[in-house]
Amino acid sequence: MSGSSRVTIWHNPSCGTSRNTLAVLREAGLEPEIVQYLKTPPSRAELAAAIAAAGITVRDAVRRKGALYTELGLDKPDLSDDALLDALVAHPALIERPFVFTGKGVRLCRPMERVREILP
After folding, report:
1. Residue 15 catalytic?
2. Global pTM value
3. What residue spans define the domains of the chain?
4. Please, is 109 exposed, middle or buried when counting C-beta atoms within 10 Å of its C-beta (0-12, 13-18, 19+)?
5. Which of 26, 29, 61, 93 gets the most CB atoms within 10 Å of its CB?
6. Catalytic residue among 6, 8, 15, 36
7. Which residues are within 8 A (CB) of 59 and not within 5 positions of it... i.e. 6 or more apart?
8. What architecture is domain 8-118?
9. What is the pLDDT of residues 18-50, one digit of tens each?
């Protein structure tokens, strides 16, 4: 992401935390680029870069709610980051949300208050 004033959110409109995070951005006077990642999923490279920039593990970026997580065996602790990334790319609904990108950094905004750490 280039430019310090650009703000992007990987958003799922059906997710309360994602909607609330978007509201916090707007209350701060920002109108982010909204990427509905279920419709326009990130590439494997974009996803890996976002996870690294957020300072979290690949496993931290995996959504554990819902049947798909256990159906795919993603709860196995010995799964590699590569296997987890493969699952996230194949099934974007498994990407935890929302990721927010600003000139000050990247955060997985769960809890949503984490977005305040990177507000310009």
Report:
1. yes
2. 0.93
3. 8-118
4. buried
5. 61
6. 15
7. 81, 84
8. 3-Layer(aba) Sandwich (3.40)
9. 999 999 999 999 999 999 999 999 999 999 999
